[in-house]
Structures are given as C-alpha cells and as structure tokens.
C-alpha cells in the first residue's frame, strides 16, 4: 500500500529521513503516527526508526539530546521541531513485566516491528509513502480490530502496561479486541499490580477522555483489570452506573471532570487519598476536589456569586455540564451572569492590605486581623462593600466600635 498524499507532519520530517538514508542507513516513520494517518486522524508525535546506531545518528545532526540513548533513542532538534529517532532493536527477557533486562541494537526493520504491541501500531512508512505492514495491520484497521503482534501472551508478559494501552485504544479508536488477544489481557491482568501507578494513570486518564470511553471502560471492567488499579477494586457497579447514566454520547470535557465524576459515583469517603494513590499532583488533586465539592453544593441550592468567586467559572461549568448529562436541572446563563457581576476575582485585587489595617487601627497580626480581612473579602464579593479604601476603612472602623 502507498499513501497518495503524505501528511504535512511527515513532509516536514522528510529531510530527517533523507539525511539518514544519504548516510547509508534505513529510516522510516513508525508507530501511532502512521496508524493515525491511515485512519485520517490528527497526527501528534512523529517517531522515526532507523538502522543507524545512536552514536551514528548523533553524527548526522548538529543538535541532539540523549533522552533514552541506552534504549536507542536520540532526540533530534531540527527546524524548530523535535523528533525521537530510535535504533531498530530487539529486547531480552523482561525482568519486571515492564523493562527488558537488555536491549540489543540491530539493522533489521522486521525484527524491530516484531516487538511492537498491536498490529495497528506495527506499521512503518517509507519516505516515498510506501506503508510496510508485516502483520496484517491494515486488515485489522479495516475490521476495527485490536490484535497483538505475534503471540499475545508473550506481548503482555513482556510489558503488562500493554493491557492498559489496549483498553485505551479501544476507547480512542472505537475498536474491538480480537478474541485471543482479549483472553490474554484477561489472564495477564494481575500483572498490572506490578506496573508503576504513574504509567497506569496516563493510560486510564486517556481512556476516560476518549470519545468511546464507555466502551473502553466496559472492556476493562469485564476483564476485571480494575481489581489491580488503585481504589477501583470494588468499583465495577459504580462505574457501570456512571456509564449508564452519562450515556455513550457524553464525553468528559477534561480530566478534572472525568476524575471528579468517578469520585462522585464511587462515593469516595476520602477522595484525596484516592487521588494520592494514583500519584497525581497536588494541583490536580485540588482542582478535582473543588469540582466534587461544588457539585455536592449544587445538589442543595443554586450557585451564588461567592461560589463563582471561590471555585471559578471553569469548575462551575464542568459541574453544570455533568448535571446536564445526568438529566438534572441546569442554569449555564446564571454562571455567566454571576461571574460578570463579580467586582473582584482574587483577594489580591482588594485595595486594602493587612498592613494598612495594622498601621491605621493598630490591629496586631493574628486571628483577629485574619478574621477582619476575610469579612472584607466576603462583603466585597457579595456586593455589600465597595472595593475602595474609604469604604473599607469605614467598615473596619464600625466593626471595631461594635466590639
């Protein structure tokens, strides 16, 4: 098979391939970018595989970075782009179901492609547009099938993260898993307990944000892979309820909303502990917990200006969007109106600082000063106090007189 039109992302990178080939080596575009070009999907990272060894690749380019040179990968910086160029390789026995004990550099493209996870990721694309398909990946693309390269059990024993990648590809590509591949994923699912949580998070996060996330999540649950993911051991019924209530046409707007919804359906008593178990950042945890808190508040009453001030417009819209998907009452217009009605969006916009109150009224630093500053902030947000120096000082003067 030959591409009639080479996507622009590949055209921009063609000089890289040509320079490697001019030096007497082979070079091809490989992996997901080739698959996506065949499917007409947007292309993201363009990866290149070559018969040149890392030190040979580095001699061909002026600017390189050793990002994974022990595994054959060199980052080439060219024309304001970054390209990962990896030497053809084979891998020895995997010692921890994730990393090979040894990597051997080779000159054979076919041997390199044999170590790929799924047939639809095992393509190579030559500079003239010829698609090299050694494992019937094109037929699997047409059939919308996810099939392991070679023996499925061997692929998952080599790298158990491929199980999570499989469920993610079901969600992102809307594919079905070929029977023997699926059986191998089921039987090897316990190996996920040996995979780093950070790597599993990346795959599960991508699954939740995919268009066919309900399909991918159902397959993951059916395979009992959730038993080996943090905090999801008993989550099957809650996840199926979430799938049923949100429906197949609903897509999460971002991962804050996705993980927030997951926590809400799981009715997590300690949601931060759950997010920490996934090794997520504090920033991400705070955003998700804010969304959960505002959702729970929204079940009791309408939103206020104070809510928009404390939680922000984006979080409020995520909450309302989730309510809409669940068939609950919504008021998106109120979010815009309340947000626009705010006179300040951050406490740093208040014209009076703590030091001003200390100097003017002799208030000492401590709980009393903090309480007064909080009162000022809340009244300005509610619209009960103008954000002017005169108005604020008069308010504080009256408060102190009433003590």
């Amino acid at each position: 098979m030959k591409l009639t039109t080479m996507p622009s992302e590949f055209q921009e990178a063609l000089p890289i391939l040509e320079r490697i080939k001019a030096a007497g080596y082979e070079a091809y575009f490989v992996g997901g970018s080739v698959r996506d070009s065949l499917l007409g999907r947007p292309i993201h990272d363009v990866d290149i595989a070559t018969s040149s060894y890392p030190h040979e690749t580095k001699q061909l380019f002026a600017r390189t970075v050793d990002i994974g040179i022990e595994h054959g990968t060199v980052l080439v910086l060219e024309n304001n782009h970054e390209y990962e160029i990896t030497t053809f390789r084979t891998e020895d026995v995997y010692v921890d179901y994730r990393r090979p004990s040894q990597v051997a550099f080779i000159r054979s493209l076919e041997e390199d492609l044999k170590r790929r996870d799924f047939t639809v990721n095992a393509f190579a694309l030559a500079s003239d547009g010829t698609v090299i398909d050694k494992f019937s990946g094109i037929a699997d693309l047409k059939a919308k099938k996810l099939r392991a390269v070679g023996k499925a059990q061997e692929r998952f024993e080599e790298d158990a993260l491929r199980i999570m990648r499989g469920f993610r590809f079901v969600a992102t590509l809307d594919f079905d898993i070929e029977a023997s591949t699926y059986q191998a994923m089921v039987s090897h699912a316990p190996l996920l307990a040996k995979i780093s949580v950070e790597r599993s998070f990346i795959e599960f996060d991508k699954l939740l944000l995919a268009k066919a996330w309900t399909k991918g999540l159902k397959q993951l649950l059916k395979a009992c892979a959730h038993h080996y993911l943090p905090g999801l051991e008993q989550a099957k019924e809650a996840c199926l309820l979430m799938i049923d209530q949100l429906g197949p046409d609903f897509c999460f707007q971002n991962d804050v909303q996705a993980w927030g919804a997951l926590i809400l359906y799981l009715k997590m008593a300690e949601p931060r502990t759950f997010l920490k178990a996934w090794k997520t950042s504090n920033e991400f945890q705070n955003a998700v917990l804010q969304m959960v808190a505002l959702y729970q508040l929204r079940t009791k009453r309408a939103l206020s200006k104070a809510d928009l001030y404390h939680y922000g417009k984006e979080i409020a819209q995520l909450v309302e969007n989730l309510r809409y998907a669940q068939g609950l009452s919504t008021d998106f217009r109120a979010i815009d109106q309340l947000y626009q009605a705010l006179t300040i969006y951050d406490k740093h916009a208040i014209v009076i600082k703590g030091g001003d109150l200390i100097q003017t009224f002799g208030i000492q630093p401590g709980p009393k000063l903090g309480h007064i500053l909080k009162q000022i902030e809340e009244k300005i947000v509610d619209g009960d106090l103008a954000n002017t120096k005169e108005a604020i000082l008069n308010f504080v003067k009256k408060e102190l007189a009433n003590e």
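The radius of gyration is 28 Å. DSSP finds 20 helices and eleven strands in the chain.
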